[in-house]
Amino acid sequence: MADRTKGATSQVGARPPSLGDVSAPPSSFDLEPREAIILKGIAGSPGVAVGPALVLGDVRSSFIRRHVRSSQIPAEFERIKNAVSTAQRTLREVGARMPSAMREASAILDAYQLMLEDPTLHERIHYKLKIERKCAEWAVSEAGEEIVALFDGAAERDVYILERRHDIEFVCDRLLRALVGEDRSRAVRLEEPMIIVARDLSPADTASMVREPALAFVTCVGTRTSHTSIMARALEIPAVVGVADAIDQIRTGNTLVVDGLTGEVFIHPSEEMIRDARQRSEQHLAFARRLLSARHKPCITADGVPIELKANVELPAEAILAVDHGAQGIGLYRTEFLYIDRTTQPGEDEQYEVYRAIVEAVSPQPVTLRTFDIGGDKFASTFQLPAEMNPALGLRAVRLALKQPEVFLVQLRAMVRASAHGDVRIMVPMVTSVHEMREVRRLLGQAIEQVRARGQAYEEHIPLGMMIEVPAAAIMADVFAREAEFFSLGTNDLVQYALAIDRASQPLAAQASPFDPAILRLIKFVTNAGNEHGCPVSLCGAMASDPLAACLLVGLGLRELSMEAAAIPEIKEAVRRLTLQEAESIAQRALACDSADAVEELLARELAPRLIDLLAGLADA
Ligand code: PEP
Ligand code: MG
């Protein structure tokens, strides 16, 4: 896991960023010879992709290039006129807010207001619109690019010309923003397979990409446990996250190689790099296919101890994928995704239908439905969440559910009704106190009573379990074992809360290691407490999908792991390669280590040689 979780963030640039990298139309690769730039990030999701970039947030790539009919031309002219006024008004407002000491900057804004009416620019825009019949955004974008291109060459040598080129870019950017509207949604529609580059991708952004031909994701922020990575792995799309300057260095249309195995992104790759990437991609796919073909082998250690592997899902469609990859049920369904990217909350019937579909797809295997985990980095606009300094420490998950019991009851009733169709378990996220578990149990009783009163079908006993992802709950596991019918260790959050490192923190990503002995000891403590008190323990954090970590977890006493479906064949293969005794011996030594690095060195020494192909994600590594 070492090199997959610990991403260096420095950028090894062979060439400074060039202002000449203006947006190219997305339909072509930029194959003109240039030196490659290598950006280093964190491997968020395995696989290797080659293709053109689409930079979100880059206004030049955020509109559809469409031709207009002659009858539409006057309306497009009107839009441009309005956009000029809007952009001028915005600049005036910015200027008016500037302190008098910044008079010089204010004068520049005045100049920009005049430039928005520049006759050369408008002549070109008019030509594009009237003769070439290009829509307003397209006309502005191309007119700007053509004028900027006139400065090419000279701008590299002359600071004055370089600044004038900046001015044109700035003015066109303001015009385009006025045309597309700054607050437009990020729903992306791809006309061809592209690599999505963004500062960040929210769960809603990523989910909206399901039906789009996205080749890979590159984000400036994020870690292996951030939601971009989790979703990308679920969708089996390669991703490199935490590439600090991706947005500054990459332009829409640039050809990229995204290596989700090493965490590298190549801009303007040479032909040799592209060939190599394609070969690695083939090798990775062949390797994944081979593992997948062995998915029905039992998941047992080399000495025959069974380990249950279940799937984490975010989207209902993934349930089929889970069965396909040999999952023995769904260990975590993140229901909050039902609440994201919409203006109204999902009703009881709608939720019931979704849960029922998942339960039926997986039956007779069990499905663990986690009640909504909203708040923190999983923001849903349908909830009126207060602005908090530290949302991860605020009104999130079960805390929010208990604050809004009516909303929570809608979800509980839908889950209770779904229990009529298979083996349903309900799990509560972010529990910190026994009071919360008791309140949830009381509300679940109420939901069951309401469903019964309507004469609807349900299962008499629905196991109620909890996530152990807050250190307080881990330390009190023996007490919680009396309140919960099962535990699931959420190490993504346990690492965040125990090590006091925001799970989305890019600068601290390397320190947020699940191999930290503090985390391993908490896992061991919870597993022991669960075993002693007859409360089954599983683990559904992202570490379960790492071959080295999975072997360590088996050694720490876990007999059930839940992970993204795509990782199941690989983890099964890892488990089958070592005996329980070996795993326990390594775990004992890991618990005695004094740092995450020491644990990783131990694992690399003891296990990596045997798992090298699984760690590299390539057959002949
Ligand atoms: C976790 O915290 O480990 C977990 C599985 O939950 P989530 O990633 O959805 O917060
Ligand atoms: Mg969590």
Q: Could you give a quick summary of the protein structure above?
A:
The protein is α/β, with parallel strands linked by helices and 621 residues long. The protein is built from 25 helices and 17 strands.
What characteristics describe this protein?
621 residues; alpha/beta; nine-stranded mixed beta sheet; eight-stranded parallel beta sheet; 45% helix; globular; disordered N terminus; binds phosphoenolpyruvate; binds magnesium ion
Report on the architecture of this protein.
The chain has 25 helices and 17 strands. The strands form two sheets. The chain has a nine-stranded mixed β-sheet. The protein has an eight-stranded parallel β-sheet with strand order 16-15-14-13-12-11-10-17. The longest helix is centred in the N-terminal third of the chain and has 25 residues, at 73-97. It is globular and about 80 Å long.
Q: Could you give the topology of this structure?
A:
Blueprint: H1 2-5, E1 11-12, E2 37-40, E3 42-45, E4 48-55, H2 73-97, H3 103-115, H4 119-130, H5 136-150, H6 154-157, H7 159-180, E5 194-198, H8 203-207, E6 214-219, H9 227-235, E7 239-241, H10 246-249, E8 255-259, E9 264-267, H11 271-293, E10 308-313, H12 318-324, E11 330-334, H13 348-362, E12 367-370, H14 398-403, H15 405-418, E13 424-428, H16 434-453, E14 464-468, H17 471-475, H18 477-480, E15 487-489, H19 491-499, H20 517-532, E16 537-539, H21 547-555, E17 560-564, H22 568-576, H23 580-591, H24 596-606, H25 608-616
Parallel strand pairs: 4-5, 5-6, 6-7, 10-11, 10-17, 11-12, 12-13, 13-14, 14-15, 15-16
Antiparallel strand pairs: 1-2, 2-9, 3-7, 4-8, 8-9
Helix pairs in contact: 2-3, 2-7, 4-5, 5-7, 13-15, 15-16, 21-22, 21-23, 23-24
Bound molecules: phosphoenolpyruvate and magnesium ion.
Phosphoenolpyruvate binds at residues 332, 334, 373, 469, 490-493, 540-541.
